[in-house]
Amino acid sequence: MDTVGGEIKTLVAFTPRALSGEVAHSGDIIDRLGYLSAVFTLVAGKYTSTPTAIDVAIAVHECATLDGSFAAVTDPTDAANTTYGTVRISGEVATAVKDADAEINIDLRSHARYVKLVVTPDFTGGSSPTLFFGATVALGESQVKPAL
Rounded distance, CA 48 to CA 104, Å? Predict the structure, then answer.
């Protein structure tokens, strides 16, 4: 009997932590060798210091080597190389951000072996606010069955 567990591999993509400052925070590096697609599940949790709004930009970055320079994933079918695989979790903190989640579903066939998330928060108001954030990834379309 086939199960979904034989088709995917689930990993932590962004170790949960409090994000502060309006700077890019890098997630865990994922070796996607043998997998053709991924679904990143993103979770924004508690925040501190009463900001009036939070905007979080989340992008997928790629690199051919584990220790090389990562760059944002771009759409290979778009001549302008528009970045895709990017989502935003944003809005007034009372309604849109706290305990919000989103997904990035991405075809990785034409992309580099290593991928990671880059998360950049933007806070409005508050005094040195932070946002608790984490993410997982389900690698799919395993070329070896069952998925390892």
Answer: 26
User: What CATH number has the domain spanning 4-117+125-142?
Assistant: 2.60.120
- For the stretch 20-52, pLDDT in tens is 988 999 999 999 999 999 999 888 888 888 888
Residue type at 1 in one-letter notation: M
pTM (predicted TM-score)? 0.84
Asked if residue 131 lies in contact with residue 121, where contact means CB atoms within 8 angstroms, the answer is yes
- The secondary structure of 31-70 as a DSSP string is E-TTEEEEEEEEEEEEEES--SEEEEEEEEEEESSTTS--
Tokens 């590096």 belong to residue: 29
Domain boundaries, the chain: 4-117+125-142
